[in-house]
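Dear H.,

Thanks for agreeing to be a second pair of eyes. The structure we're designing against is below in token form, covering all 170 positions.
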């Protein structure tokens, strides 16, 4: 994926599959098989590789850290403050599979198990009026943290409230 910062040249980042191959975690044939499976399932490449048993979550996370040049955090070992937990709708967090970790000054720290779309980051920055710092975490940690700290019951309540607002506006 290419990314361009303001006033800088376009920089091409290595793809996750290429990094996994270069690090010796998977073969070219395994990458091809996983890419074919990804096209059919629509999942993330790292998740497909783990599901197929080609790599571990930890190996994917290490390569994502290298690819995205982001730090790593275990979300299950971090106790997020209430102000970070309540900052974004829980349905949004589940949808994008992100976990708010903390707030430092004017920066919201988020954990993700994969690459997060820049539009989502911009939406978060706009709605919270905070900058965003991203960390990489294990997919199972993200899932477990969302289930424990951002329960689906609250997601259902948020969706019900939003539906009520939409109907009241009509």
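And this is the sequence the design step returned. I haven't edited it by hand at all.
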């Amino acid at each position: 994926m290419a990314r361009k910062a303001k006033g800088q040249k376009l920089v091409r980042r290595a793809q996750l599959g290429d990094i996994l191959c270069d690090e010796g975690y998977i073969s070219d044939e395994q990458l091809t098989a996983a890419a074919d499976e990804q096209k059919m399932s629509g999942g993330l490449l790292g998740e497909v590789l783990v599901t197929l048993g080609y790599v571990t979550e930890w190996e994917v996370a290490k390569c994502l850290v290298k690819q995205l040049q982001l730090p790593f955090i275990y979300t299950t070992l971090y106790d997020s403050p209430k102000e970070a937990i309540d900052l974004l709708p829980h349905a949004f967090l589940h949808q994008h599979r992100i976990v708010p970790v903390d707030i430092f000054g004017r920066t919201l720290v988020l954990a993700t198990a994969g690459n997060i779309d820049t539009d989502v980051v911009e939406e978060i920055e706009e709605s919270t009026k905070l900058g965003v710092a991203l960390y990489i975490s294990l997919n199972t940690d993200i899932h477990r943290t969302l289930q424990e700290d951002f329960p689906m019951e609250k997601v259902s309540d948020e969706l019900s409230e939003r539906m009520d607002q939409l109907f009241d506006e009509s």
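Two observations from my side: The first helix runs from residue 16 to 22. Strands lie at 2-3, 11-12, 98-104, 107-112, 131-136.

Warmly,
E.
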